[in-house]
Design goal:
Organism: Streptomyces melanosporofaciens
CATH architecture of the largest domain: 3-Layer(aba) Sandwich
CATH class of the largest domain: Alpha Beta
Structural class: alpha/beta
Subcellular location: Cell membrane
Membrane topology: Multi-pass membrane protein
Pfam families: HATPase_c (PF02518), HisKA_3 (PF07730), PAS_4 (PF08448), PAS_9 (PF13426), Response_reg (PF00072)
Keywords: Cell membrane, Kinase, Membrane, Phosphoprotein, Transferase, Transmembrane, Transmembrane helix, Two-component regulatory system
Strand order of the largest sheet: 2-1-3-4-5-6
Radius of gyration: 46 Å
Number of helices: 22
């Protein structure tokens, strides 16, 4: 054991209890967890391997029995001390554990502070036992005719050391009162509770430890076989009083004596006070209701919410506040159930003292007490919540209408753009290309009339320039309105664009079309223009060797993925510069269409552009070549 810390092994077959004990030990600065075990065999092995100072061990575990495990640990690790822990406290089991050398016996449910204290006490070779076990183990002293013990062998000068130690470390106060009513023994807890030393308490009477108003009641505790717990006040050496619970019994022997158990209720009263403060400080109305549906307590917020004085509410049926409601909570079923009851909530209607009603959220929680099962009702006025919910629903409806309007606007915008592109393409085809074609024909006629070779060469160059102009105009017509797109072939339009890029830059491509649905004309045009913007960026900036384009059907929409092996870039640096709006336009187009866009890139690793748009037909007129006033131009 280094740095004076107490090494501890925890043995328990229940995972939740085992982990809770481990966390409890880890939280204490003077304790160190060195081993865990889930059965008796592992408990002994862990003790032998780690040589702990204390083993805290569940009594009922598989693969062995507790007394044998304690003997094995004490034989093989003499310095180890065992503190027994059990969900049960049968007297025979307790005595068997004490007989084989256990340094303490606690029942599960003992407060964490007492468990930690028991471990520390065991490390000091001191004994610990839960109060209820102490009282039960002392029962044979009250029935000497059925036991082999004699009181005279245990009390006074003939008290055995083990019994004195048992009483000395009890977590409650214990007094042994002689036949003359004088105190013969007081354990350490009693001395601390009342502020007296052992010598000062000896020969005092029990009535000297309570205020005068309780003296008669205190004397009635002595001389009876057993008395039920009675709440009185104890009086300390300095004259101050504290709430306490007294119970007594009769120890038979040649000279019958009495035993008195005393519990300080100050902490319990403090906990009750904190509970009341918690209820009073709650922002919600809180009621405590018994199994017959009668109100037992109400906080200030209940008075404000319902308009009743709390004194008027006590004893009334809860239906006075929640009338004609499906309050289908069967408290009797809760009371009869072997399982721990679980609370729930429901929306009901509350009624104030002026008969006005309001929507209420009611949380229903069971509360087990010594008097039986009670129910805590937490009631909140949700008028504003429902009003806000109504406003939210209306807002959502407005957003849906706005979204439909946005889709209609997008449809008309795409339709107008494509119609304008078609008109420009038609103008180029019907006017500019025709004029340049006529000029080329006249130029060829003029060339045939020339005889001078130099003049013919000039005409040849001029003819090549006109042909290049025609080629570029035809490409412009394709860019404005691809013929494949007009005929409903998105993949064909993209293939034509990729072929153009390959011819101009040498970038090879792979087009993968796995789109089975047929997009509406407006959506197809938007997908093509968005992909065109991304591919233009590849052609101008990427310095790529290959580009991979995929058309995929995903979630009732079209996913387009464009991946190049170019230089890549830092999106945060590039997209903020003037003149680099292409990628931002891609994102905006996808978002306007009700979709999304994702761009990934880094220097030296190429770029991936993904965008998704829904394929549902947007409202508005569909894009059809017949709708264009300029007809269907053919380059």
């Amino acid at each position: 054991m280094g740095d004076n810390r107490i090494d501890v092994v925890v043995a328990d077959d229940d995972p939740a209890v085992r982990e809770a004990l481990a966390d409890l030990i880890d939280s204490h600065p003077d304790l160190e967890l060195v081993g865990l075990a889930i059965n008796h065999e592992q408990a002994v092995r862990a003790a032998v391997d780690h040589h702990p100072r204390v083993v805290i061990m569940d009594v009922h575990m598989p693969r062995g029995d507790a007394p044998s495990s304690v003997r094995a640990i004490r034989d093989q690790v003499p310095d180890a001390r065992v503190v027994a822990l059990s969900a049960h406290g049968e007297r025979e089991t307790v005595l068997n554990m004490l007989a084989v050398g256990a340094s303490g016996y606690l029942v599960k449910g003992t407060p964490a502070e007492e468990i930690l204290e028991a471990i520390i006490r065991a490390a000091r070779d001191q004994f610990s036992m839960s109060a209820e076990l102490l009282a039960d183990c002392a029962e044979p002293l009250r029935r000497a005719e059925r036991a082999s013990w004699r009181f005279e062998d245990l009390v006074g000068n003939r008290l055995e050391d083990s019994f004195l130690e048992l009483l000395g470390h009890a977590p409650c106060g214990v007094l042994i009162v002689g036949p003359r009513g004088r105190i013969e023994y007081a354990n350490a807890h009693t001395r601390h509770m009342f502020g007296y030393s052992s010598a000062e308490l000896r020969d005092k009477r029990l009535r000297d430890l309570v205020p005068e108003r309780y003296r008669t009641a205190s004397e009635q505790l002595i001389g009876r076989v057993f008395t039920a717990p009675s709440v009185m006040s104890g009086r300390r050496r300095d004259g101050t009083e504290f709430p306490a619970q007294f119970s007594g019994g009769h120890l038979q022997g040649r000279q019958p004596r009495g035993v008195v158990f005393i519990s300080d209720l100050s902490q319990l009263r403090a906990a009750e006070s904190r509970f009341r403060q918690l209820i009073e400080s709650s922002p919600d109305a809180m009621l405590i209701v018994d199994t017959s549906g009668r109100i037992q307590a109400a906080n200030n917020r209940t008075e404000a919410l319902f308009g009743y004085d709390r004194d008027h509410l006590i004893g009334r049926a809860v239906e006075a506040l929640l009338p004609d409601q499906p309050l289908t909570v069967s408290l009797r079923e809760w009371d009869d159930s072997l399982e721990e009851p679980v609370g729930h909530s429901m929306e009901l209607v509350g009624r104030r003292s002026d008969a006005k009603q309001f929507p209420a959220d009611v949380s229903i929680s069971p509360l087990r007490t010594e008097e039986g099962l009670l129910t805590v009702l937490t009631i909140r006025d949700i008028t504003e919540v429902q009003r806000a919910q109504f406003v939210l629903e209306r807002s959502l409806e407005l957003l849906e209408v706005t979204d439909r309007d946005r889709q209609a606007l997008l449809s008309h915008l795409v339709h107008a753009q494509e119609a304008e592109r078609g008109r420009i393409a038609a103008d180029i085809h019907d006017d500019t290309i025709q004029v340049i074609t006529a000029a080329s024909l006249r130029l060829q006629q003029l060339r045939r009339r020339l005889r001078d070779p130099d003049e013919q060469r000039v005409m040849d160059k001029l003819d090549e320039t006109l042909k290049l102009s025609l080629s570029r105009l035809r490409q412009l017509i394709f860019d404005l309105r691809p013929s494949s797109l007009e005929h409903g072939c998105l993949a064909g339009a993209l293939r034509g664009l990729l072929e153009q890029i390959r011819a101009e830059t040498g970038i090879t491509y792979r087009l993968e079309d796995r789109l089975t649905a047929h997009p509406p004309a407006e959506t197809m045009a938007l997908i093509y223009r968005t992909a065109q913007e991304a591919l233009v960026n590849v052609r101008k900036h990427a310095h790529a060797k290959t580009v991979h384009v995929q058309l995929l059907g995903l979630d009732d929409g079209c996913l387009v993925r464009i991946v190049d092996d170019g230089d890549g870039y830092n999106p945060l640096e590039v997209e903020s510069r003037p003149g680099h709006l292409g990628l931002s336009l891609i994102q905006e187009r996808a978002q306007i269409a009700g979709g999304w866009c994702r761009i990934e890139s880094e220097p030296g690793s190429g770029t991936t552009v993904e965008f998704w748009v829904p394929l549902g037909a947007p409202p508005g007129a569909s894009l059809d070549p017949a709708d264009s006033p300029e007809g269907d131009p053919q380059p």
